[in-house]
């Protein structure tokens, strides 16, 4: 953004639109991806996302003017929407219950690695000419997309999607490869068949399903939004709520505008600003990595509550320090400047050890099989909407109520998020995907079952 603004000579409003438009388009992409993945399968939906994102990256890397750059951001945004929806769903459906939290949080770890590599490559490409540097910063994203298109050939299809199509033989062979034992694979297949409305003792390789049983995603929106059961309504509130709060706490303001925050805190040299953002990326990566090993041990609920509590404290500290710095502009308050930077890193740490990965883990595992792809896509759509809202309004917000006031607002929203998670989120650790609807049918009372809820099945 620093370099684009310099070359194209655009003002802050255009910068905000350029940043946020990707997430508006990702909202559209995530809604399209739900039905697409029900129709062509989870695996090939990943291919679609890669192709779209690669085209967007090439357009951004070309970017001769603001219009083409916007077109590239929009195209890439649709690909992002596809990817954000399909990656956690695919991971959850392939995973064993004992390792589902770890494996489903890997997409968030991948995002963290991508952000860190983006910050590092920005430092490297920033040394090139103005015309070439920022274009390589954006265009280089086409490389991992191309790699994944070929890597997908070695990845299995989701066994749950195969069962929904009546392809039981293929589903069983894949489950034998991705389960910890033959007994676990058989138990998982049995549970999936029951959830899909197929006789659990059926041993046919291919089953011809009734149109009402075979699913390409027909009628799902009606079941989700028009006539949801009590359990589905509760699941939908939880999924949309956690995606709303993931960005409403202001993380996008830190990830995208950290150079401005550090500048307000007293770091003015451009190279030092870029290096400070590398610290943000490194902190994000480190704590997401830690969380992947904790989520199946500590549990989703406990980690989420600890994370959100830390976010409240860090944001309150950051807001206070930035307000003090702003009110003493003629003085060099080293302690306030230092604490602003430390609070930023603490916020990123607490966010990424809990709320960031658990948003994707939790919302991808709680929907019933028949509703998972399209129900999850609603959560991702809310996620992208809030991401776009924060990224497109933060500069305007902090100019209106000061940067300290903006972070006080985020701190207040974080308190609401903490209460929401405490009262509405039951523990899902250790439960099979087929057990989730029963868990949520108990409503808020499910929270009182404790954090160590065991699966009904023997798996």
From TrEMBL:
The keyword Plastid does not apply. It is found in: Membrane. This is Polyol transporter 3. Keywords: Membrane, Sugar transport, Symport, Transmembrane, Transmembrane helix, Transport. InterPro entries: MFS_dom, MFS_sugar_transport-like, MFS_trans_sf, Myo-inositol_Transporter, Sugar/inositol_transpt, Sugar_transporter_CS. One of its GO terms (cellular component) is membrane. It comes from Turnera subulata. One of its GO terms (molecular function) is symporter activity. It comes from the Eukaryota. SUPFAM superfamilies: MFS general substrate transporter. It is a multi-pass membrane protein. Residues 1-429 form the Major facilitator superfamily (MFS) profile domain. PROSITE patterns: MFS, SUGAR_TRANSPORT_1. Gene3D superfamilies: MFS general substrate transporter like domains. The chain crosses the membrane at residues 15-32, 44-62, 68-90, 102-120, 132-153, 231-253, 273-295, 302-325, 337-363, 375-395, 401-425. Belongs to the major facilitator superfamily. Sugar transporter (TC 2.A.1.1) family.
């Amino acid at each position: 953004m620093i370099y684009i603004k310099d070359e194209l000579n655009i003002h802050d409003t255009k910068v905000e639109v350029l940043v946020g438009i990707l997430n508006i388009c990702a909202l559209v992409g995530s809604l399209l991806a739900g039905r697409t993945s029900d129709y062509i399968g989870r695996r090939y939906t990943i291919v679609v996302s890669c192709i779209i994102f690669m085209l967007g990256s090439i357009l951004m890397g070309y970017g001769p003017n603001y219009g083409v750059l916007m077109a590239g951001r929009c195209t890439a945004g649709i690909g992002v929407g596809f990817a954000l929806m399909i990656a956690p769903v695919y991971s959850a459906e392939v995973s064993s219950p004992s390792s589902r939290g770890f494996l489903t949080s890997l997409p968030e770890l991948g995002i963290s690695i991508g952000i860190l590599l983006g910050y590092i490559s920005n430092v490297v490409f920033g040394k090139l000419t103005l015309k070439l540097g920022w274009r390589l910063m954006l265009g280089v994203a086409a490389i991992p997309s191309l790699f994944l298109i070929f890597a997908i050939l070695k990845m299995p299809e989701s066994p749950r999607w195969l069962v929904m199509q009546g392809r039981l033989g293929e589903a069983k062979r894949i489950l034998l490869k991705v389960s910890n034992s033959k007994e676990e694979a058989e138990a998982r297949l049995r549970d999936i068949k029951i959830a899909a409305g197929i006789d659990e003792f059926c041993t046919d390789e291919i089953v011809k399903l009734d149109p009402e049983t075979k699913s390409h995603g027909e009628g799902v929106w009606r079941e989700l939004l028009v006539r949801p059961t009590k359990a589905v309504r509760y699941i939908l509130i939880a999924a949309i709520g956690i995606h709303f709060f993931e960005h409403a706490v202001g993380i996008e303001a830190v990830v995208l505008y950290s150079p401005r925050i550090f500048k307000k805190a007293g770091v003015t040299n451009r190279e030092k600003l870029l290096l400070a953002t590398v610290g943000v990326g490194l902190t994000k990566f480190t704590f997401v990595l830690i969380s992947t090993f904790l989520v199946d041990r500590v549990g989703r609920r406990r980690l989420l509550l600890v994370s959100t509590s830390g976010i409240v404290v860090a944001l309150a500290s950051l807001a206070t320090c930035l307000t003090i710095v702003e009110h003493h502009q003629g003085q060099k308050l080293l302690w306030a400047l230092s604490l602003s930077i430390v609070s930023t890193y603490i916020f990123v740490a607490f966010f990424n050890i809990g709320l960031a990965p658990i948003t994707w883990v939790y919302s991808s595992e709680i929907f019933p099989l028949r509703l998972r792809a399209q129900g999850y896509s609603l959560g991702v759509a809310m996620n992208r909407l809030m991401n776009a809202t924060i990224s497109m309004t933060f500069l305007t917000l902090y100019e209106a109520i000061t940067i300290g006031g903006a972070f006080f607002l985020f701190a207040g929203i974080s308190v609401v998020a903490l209460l929401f998670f405490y009262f509405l989120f039951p523990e899902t650790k250790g439960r099979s995907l087929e057990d989730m609807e029963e868990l949520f049918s108990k409503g808020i009372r499910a929270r009182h079952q404790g954090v160590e809820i065991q699966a009904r099945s023997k798996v």
